[in-house]
Amino acid sequence: LDNKNVFLQKGKVGAVFAFTGSFKTMFCANIAYNTIKNGANVLYISLEISKDDMYINFLSRHSYNFDKKLSHSDIKANRLTPDDETYLFETIYPDFKDKLKSNLVIYDETDIKQNDYTGVNKLLSKADKRFIKQTNKGIDLIIIDHLNLFKFRKTEKNINDYAAVNHWMSYFRKNCTNFLGQKKQVAILCACQSSREGYKNAVSKGKYELTGIAEGNEIE
Prior knowledge:
Blueprint: E1 13-18, H1 24-37, E2 42-46, H2 51-62, H3 72-76, H4 82-99, E3 104-108, H5 117-135, E4 141-145, H6 161-177, E5 187-193, H7 196-205
Parallel strand pairs: 1-5, 2-3, 2-4, 4-5
Helix pairs in contact: 1-2
């Protein structure tokens, strides 16, 4: 899948779901990387991994275009040799910054200050304006990794986890067809968590079923 150009259509929502540790984030990062490499603009909302760590993931992925590949885990754990550090900061980073950085915005949970649609609308608008300033066009693709964690971003105090996830899924689905009420379409990809029971069923049956998505019949 690293070598595939996965095409996501504007106005449609894509979803990938699996259990913890099934490389959903790597999958989404690879799609994002190929997308920005093709000149499109990607907003990556990372609700589980910090934006600094996600940025390292992209630098590691960018190193695959060069003679020496750098592992994101080695970079994060400060296990690079002095030569590799020089290689990262003098070769990989400058090239990424020059060619691709303007097409990527990463948010993490620390950026979501207001737990409602208005607050997220402001973040989407901020990213869109940044892209327009840097690339003369707005957002093309939004990736939410992973959507189920929006259960902690409840729009109402008395709402349960299931309803919260469904509300946020509906919010992003509406934005893909009418982005911020601008009558503009964007592509959206949601990484979703499988429930533990859904994972057990997948192990026994050899495949996942849609009902295995945790807290998300709207995602189904």
